[in-house]
Structure formats: structure tokens, C-alpha cells
Amino acid sequence: MIIQRCFIGTGPLYCQGRKKVIVLFHRGHEHSGRLQHIVDELAMPDTAFYAWDARGHGQTSGPRGYSPSLARSVQDVDEFVRFAASDSQVGLEEVVVIAQSVGAVMVATWVHDYAPAIRGLVLASPAFKVKLYVPLARPGLALWHRLRGLFFINSYVKGRYLTHDRQRVASFNNDPLITRAIAVNILLDLYKTSERIVSDAAAITLPTQLLISGDDYVVHRQPQIDFYQRLRSPLKELHLLPGFYHDTLGEENRAQAFEKMQSFISRLYANKSQKFDYQHEDRTGPSADRWRLLSGGPVPLSPVDLAYRFMRKAMKLFGAHSAGLHLGMSTGFDSGSFAGLCLSKSTARQ
What we know:
The chain is an alpha/beta fold and 350 residues long. The protein contains 13 helices and ten strands.
């Protein structure tokens, strides 16, 4: 990771002392230098803007397109946002995050896993499910990764599939800092993590605006909608932008997207930062619902039910021959009792 740029107005300037902070995260393959137009077009001179080059991108060191894991990159997100707040001398509650594509997935994962108390976020065309046009590409890549280890895949995406803006197309195709390759472990991590975040998006309670490109040839739309519908913030917005390609914030008619972003961000800063009320989560939250469903057991004679029945029979049959299983069955696999008995037996042997 490189702490690359701090913007105010039309250029990089001294950002300390600004009361509003917006942190920008670029798309996959790109870098912070391609985000200057966002700063200019949002036109918020009282706001400090920060942007980075993600690991393996732009001016960072190391192999192009590589990170040890998506989890490590998400940790980078946490460290960078906290740096931006500290550098501007404000609390996290004054920070808004804007992220696109793969950057939006990392930010969504960050707010899910780290639960930061930021003011809100804007996600543009998050890459929850990249379109792989080769049949069985994902299982094939996973198998080859297991057999061969780390390798890199070059992106098939050309500038003309990202935006109708000819200047942006040309700059993308000719930018020497564009990273065409992506490490296979990151691509596979992206799929796995996205599925987890979309399925458990109810855990995200921050104010969120989601911008969806209407003609996106790079990522699928349905996971974006599923993610949005499961969000539990009382303040959330979804906007579908007809005719937009994947580079939502770099499209020819991006003024439509910027108008919606400006309105949403103004609302966030116009009111005091709100904290989600978790007082009744044990009774009315999604985790409580999940607990009640699990407590009722699986559907009778379903594959899951039959698997559990087989497991119970096997444990009873072989439990007598295993000290560990016998101990677990005698304590109901209660972790406290189990650990206490293990400790007492260990002490007795001494």
C-alpha cells in the first residue's frame, strides 16, 4: 500500500484541519491518479480527499496485481482510513468513503468485518461477482491454483467496455500505471469474500448509497441488488443508471451519478452522525432469526437432516472408543465443562 495523494479542490494540497474527509478507493487494475476528476466534479472545497494505490497497483512496490490475500488488503483499507482521519485531525465519524468495483468490495468487507464508525459510504458498481465468460472458469482456476500455486491472469477488459467517454478510454488504454494482471489468489478470494458479504449484508448498518451501472459488461447486477436489500441502515439509497458501463464514476454522463452522490453526502454531513440501535438485536436482529431457525432443526428427512442423523449414530457407535468423544458426549460438548474436565484430568496426572 502507498499513501499516495491528498486532494483539495483541483490539486494535492495540505489536508490537515479540514472538518470533512472523503476517502476514495479506485477500481481494480487502476490507481489513485485516475480519481482526480472525482475531486474536481464533486466540488467540495471544504473537504479533504484522500486516495491510495492499493497493493500491487500504481506506484506501489512488489508484483503487479498481487496481495497476500484479500483480507490483508482489507486491513490496508482500515489502516488507510484511520490514517486519513488522523492526518486531518478528525474522528472517524467525519469520514465518508467512496469506492468503485473491486475497491467497493474491499470497503464493503471492511465495514462488515471491522464495523468502523464512519459517517457513510458510496459504493459504485461493486464487483461482487465478476463476469467470467469461459465456462467453469472459477473451479478451473481453483484447481490449477491448488496444483500449480500462484500465477497471474491478465484482464480481458478493454477501455471501451468501461465507459463511453472517449478520453477516459484512451487514457485507460495508454496509462503505464494500469495493472493488467491480477493474482489468482486475489481473484478467488474476491469471489469467496463477496459471497460471504452479500449473504450477511444485514450486519452492515451504516448509511449507504449504491450506484449500479445499467449496461455493465464486467460484473453481475443481481448480487449488488441482493446486497442492498439486506442492508439494515435506516438511510440507504439505490440508483440504477441506464446505459452506464462499469466505470460508473468515469462515464460520459457521470453528472447524473455525481448529482446523486452530492445530494447523499450533503445529507450525511447536514445531520449529526447517527449510531444504529443494537439494544434489541438478541430478539429482533437477523442473528436472532438465524438462531431460531437453527434451533428448530433441519427439514425432516432432508439431506442435512439425514447427515445429522448419521453423524449422531456414528458418534454413539464410536464414542466409546475415543476418550475425546466420550468426554464431549458426557458434557454435551459444552466448552466450559469440557475444558474444566480436561484441566482437572491433566492436574490429576501431575
